[in-house]
Design goal:
About 30% of the residues lie in helices and about 30% in strands. The chain is of the alpha+beta class and about 350 residues long. The N and C termini lie far apart (about 75 Å).
Length: about 350
């Protein structure tokens, strides 16, 4: 093993001990074919990788074809390290397998698009943030972001296989395809009486496993917009999964027109500490997922706004919103037919 600072030495020793149970360890001048844990970095923490030395390619060198025998070892090394809980990256076109411990906090994305600092080649890289090396290249940021999501999805299916029974494995890929993109998912239950349960937040792994179990049970899994739904066991209603929006509509309904007055009212209410409603992904039938309850502002008569409250809080929260706008000099009128509804007009309107 390459000499390295303490953390890297410990990682290299653990990886070497694990792989030595299955593969021969390359020792210069003694064992001519086998794996070796190495690093070319000079700064700690070093990026560690496993390289296969020696071996006879399965096709003549002069054909410039891949050394298929070594590729087979690479695939086996990837499988062993992944199964035993290590983070691994297979760099395209190279026989090295980069390896590191999984971080303690793994709720965020593992792969991210970044600008390349390499003077030649594609301008974008898809970085594996766990092993600190790139897993793909791209010509545009959009292409890099799309590839990063593909790698995230592959990673989640791999993680799901590790933590689930083999009986579920055939359904995990189907669940991944049904869900589509999205790292963080919102789940809610709808009773047979049409009552909605609380919106709960989960990582993608939970959503994939839950949908895979529904598929395995033979439940009818349906998609409507970005929402995936299936019946809950024992007639408890329906489970709905919707990806959390990266850019929700905050304080207003996304299908309604936006005016400068709407923006002014939302700013005043947020500055006063009132929680705005949050609308995210479309769920089919003209509906939009409500990710968080709060005040709702919509345009009225071109010059004013309409105030309402969605979810918990009711009229009391609307009354507080009305007070905030009055204190800012707005003319506020209560709706005579619907308690808790207000119309508000900015100064001078």
């Amino acid at each position: 093993m390459t000499t390295a600072p303490l953390r890297s030495v410990h990682l290299a020793a653990r990886v070497t001990t694990l792989l030595a149970r299955t593969f021969p360890e390359y020792v210069p001048g003694v064992v001519h074919e086998g794996f070796r844990v190495e690093s070319l970095d000079t700064a700690e923490p070093r990026r560690m990788f496993v390289r296969w030395h020696g071996g006879t390619p399965t096709r003549p060198v002069w054909t410039h074809g891949p050394a298929l025998g070594r590729e087979q070892y690479k695939a086996q090394i990837l499988e062993v390290l992944t199964r035993n809980g290590y983070a691994v990256t297979s760099v395209p076109g190279r026989m090295d397998v980069f390896v590191d411990d999984k971080p303690h906090e793994i709720s965020g994305p593992r792969f991210a698009p970044v600008l390349s600092d390499i003077p030649i080649g594609p301008p974008w890289l898809v970085m594996d943030l766990w092993t600190r090396t790139h897993s793909a290249t791209a010509n545009t940021e959009e292409e890099a972001a799309g590839t990063a999501m593909e790698h995230e999805r592959q990673h989640t299916v791999t993680e799901a296989r590790i933590v689930t029974h083999q009986k579920l494995w055939d359904f995990l890929k189907r669940a991944d395809e049904v869900l589509g993109d999205g790292l963080t998912w919102l789940r809610r239950e709808v009773s047979d009486g049409g009552e909605y349960g609380s919106v709960l937040r989960f990582d993608r792994l939970d959503a994939v496993v839950a949908v895979a179990n529904a598929l395995r049970r033979g439940d009818e899994v349906t998609s409507s917009g970005r929402m995936v739904a299936y019946p809950l066991p024992h007639g408890r209603g329906t489970a709905q999964w919707v990806p959390k929006s990266a850019a929700p509509a905050v304080g207003y309904f996304p299908r309604w027109p936006w005016t400068e007055t709407v923006g002014q009212a939302i700013t005043l209410l947020i500055d006063a500490g009132l929680p705005p409603v949050r609308y995210g992904e479309e769920i089919g039938g003209g509906g939009v997922m409500c990710e968080g309850d709060g005040f709702l502002v919509s345009p009225e008569n071109g010059v004013g706004v309409h105030l309402d409250t969605i979810g918990a809080g009711g009229a009391g929260a609307s009354d507080r919103a009305a007070e905030v706008l009055r204190a800012a000099g707005w003319r506020v009128e209560a709706d005579t037919e619907w308690p808790g509804w207000y119309s508000a007009f900015p100064p001078g309107a």
